[in-house]
Specification:
Helix content: 40-55%
CATH topology of the largest domain: Butyryl-CoA Dehydrogenase, subunit A, domain 3
Mean pLDDT: 89
Number of helices: 20
CATH architecture of the largest domain: Up-down Bundle
Number of strands: 10
Order of helices and strands: HHHHHHHHHEHHEEHEHEEHEHHHEHEHHE
Strand order of the largest sheet: 1-2-3-4-5
Largest sheet: 5 strands, mixed
Number of domains: 3
Strand content: 5-15%
């Protein structure tokens, strides 16, 4: 059915070219600004689809400098009609009518939003706009004004990728190869190096993989989660993904572990699917395996060493702030780790464990970003979903990536389906981090490591 409609759009696009006023379109092959303005002025659907297709044909052939210039034009020349907006505001005065507010709403909308809506008519227009935003996001740092363009795309995507449009599908070994290739490509937590590794993740009876899809992106997963069924909460990733391991029979499974969640489309950054995915997958699993008692994650801690580096610098600067003050001998050990990497000596590793595990507990409970949210991005995600921080696992991941991000530490978040909403509300409204009592005690230090708060 999807292929039928795609072919239909292509056919309409080809026929629509005969309706396009050639005088509206510049002879310059890369004049996207003129094509965009012509598209906004067209009233016919067929001609609009043809122009939208032409737009992307030109856009996809542009080099980086040409794209820079076009995005800048989008920001400067396709915004709201400010003159009309100011006139309406002046006319409204102190008393607004419904009609005036509606007129203001129409005039205040940037032209870009209507342009993007019309571009969405092109064959595969939705995924092409997602790719366009990927390019845009790469340029935000150099050109802050592009934030206005990004805000328009984010606004539209928030509606177009509403939860009501998403379709949950289980990924199996019989899923089309084109989709399986993307699962390998987009896996962002624990690399899948081969087809056989993928098979080990999705074919055994104690393994599951689920993904969200959108009708307009039939073979493009938006986000997917890998699940391990078992009896006990895992404290390391290797036994979970090891090719040679004991298979847990379905009837013996008491626990489902979400061990990898990967967002697939960078152009949909900031559009949240993960919370819906986890909760829906949990419900799917319960329908299939009603004996399941717990849902947990085995999650990375990608921000820990970055935060630790900043903490060490702050301690050397002795600037008053709400952060742990480290004893000099502990600070030296941390600086050695950051400078030289993981020590070979088991004695040195034990010293690190005594220092880093309590610090990691403090990090989860107290470290904040500039928005006063948990510093760790994975923590923000799971805590915001209503999970509880359950356990910190030392040396749970021996990959180079994990050592570079968290000294090998991973954590378990517990999804208690009876408490998810309460935890979410406490986090959203009060910033409260739900954590096991053992982690709260750990964050206060131990006999070998004591955290002292700085006083401003």
């Amino acid at each position: 059915m999807t292929s039928f409609f795609s072919d239909l759009i292509v056919a309409i696009s080809e026929r629509g070219r005969s309706f396009v006023d050639v005088h509206q379109v510049s002879p310059e092959p890369k004049d996207l600004q003129t094509i965009a303005k012509a598209l906004l002025s067209q009233k016919g659907e067929a001609s609009g689809i043809a122009l939208a297709s032409d737009f992307f044909s030109v856009y996809e052939d542009m080099d980086a400098l040409e794209l820079d210039a076009f995005f800048d034009i989008l920001a400067k020349q396709f915004g709201p009609d400010l003159k009309s907006v100011n006139e309406i505001i002046a006319d409204i005065g102190d008393t607004a009518t419904v009609e005036a507010v509606l007129e203001l709403h129409v005039k205040a909308e940037p032209q870009r939003q209507e342009l993007f809506r019309r571009l969405n008519q092109a064959p595969q227009g939705t995924i092409k706009l997602v790719r366009l935003r990927e390019e845009l996001l790469k340029r935000l740092g150099k050109n802050p004004r592009l934030g206005e363009v990004d805000a328009d795309l984010h606004h539209l995507f928030h509606s177009w990728f509403n939860r009501g449009f998403l379709v949950l599908k289980r990924i199996t070994w019989s899923t089309p190869a084109s989709v399986l290739e993307k699962i390998i490509k987009y896996e962002a937590v624990h690399e899948i190096a081969s087809w056989e590794e993928l098979r080990q993740r999705i074919e055994p009876t104690d393994r599951r993989c689920y993904a969200f899809f959108h009708p307009a992106l039939a073979e493009e997963p938006l986000i997917f989660v890998e699940v391990a069924l078992g009896k006990d909460i895992p404290d390391a990733i290797e036994p979970v993904i090891a090719p040679k391991r004991e298979i847990t029979k379905d009837r013996h499974a008491r626990l489902a572990t979400f061990y990898s969640i990967s967002n697939c489309q960078q152009g949909l950054s900031g559009i949240s699917f993960g919370s819906f995915l986890i909760k829906q997958v949990a419900q799917e699993l319960l329908r299939e395996l009603p004996q399941l008692e717990q849902f947990v994650t085995l999650s990375p801690v990608p921000g820990f060493l970055r935060w630790l580096r900043q903490l060490a610098q702050d301690n050397r600067g002795r600037e008053p702030q709400a952060a742990p003050e480290l004893p000099d001998e502990q600070l030296l050990v941390i600086e050695d780790l950051l400078a030289h990497g993981w020590p070979a000596s088991e004695d040195q590793q034990q010293v690190l464990q005594d220092i880093l595990v309590p610090l990691c507990a403090w990090y989860f409970l107290h470290a904040k970003d500039r928005h006063q949210k948990p510093y760790d991005p994975v923590a923000r995600f799971h805590l915001g979903n209503g999970a509880r921080l359950e356990r910190i696992n030392w040396l749970a991941d021996h990959s180079a990536k994990s050592f570079g991000q968290s000294a090998g530490i991973m954590v378990n978040y517990l999804y208690d389906l009876d408490e998810i909403e309460n935890n979410h509300e406490a986090f959203a409204n009060e910033g409260m981090v739900r954590a096991a009592s053992s982690i709260s005690r750990m964050a206060k230090g131990s006999s070998s490591f004591q955290i002292v708060e700085k006083v401003s």
